Amino acid sequence: xxxxxxxxxxxxxxxxxxxxxxxxxxxxxxxxxxxxxxxxxxxxxxxxxxxxxxxxxxxxxxxxxxxxxxxxxxxxxxxxxxxxxxxxxxxxxxxxxxxxxxxxxxxxxxxxxxxxxxxxxxxxxxxxxxxxxxxxxxxxxxxxxxxxxxxxxxxxxxxxxxxxxxxxxxx
Length: 171
Description:
single chain
């Protein structure tokens, strides 16, 4: 499932896998002491997301796009005008404007080994240099918004600013 797995210069395990959801290769990165079985189990989970949860992600992406269009219209001027025109008919079409680069895994407690997690980051066409991060745990979106190095297992309360720009939650 993971190809070209190796230790990078920073000591992380790095490889690539094909995303059935997105239709392209994504880099995977994780600490050496995380089991390959755990990582592959989560990749399998991501590649087979149930449709309802995938739609939740797409709705959050739409909120992110709409807010960025209001706040930073100059970033969105050159985007195709139809990004969300057909959202009701095909919500997953918004995914073609997102380019995920990395699926990141952090250390976890052994009690949580069966809890599915998603921690994706990359670029999206409407966010410029701020990019995108999508984080979910146990089939619940935790964060969708500008790029942040978020640990899915960190349960600290987000700052008010982070909450304001977290499109996984309704503001």
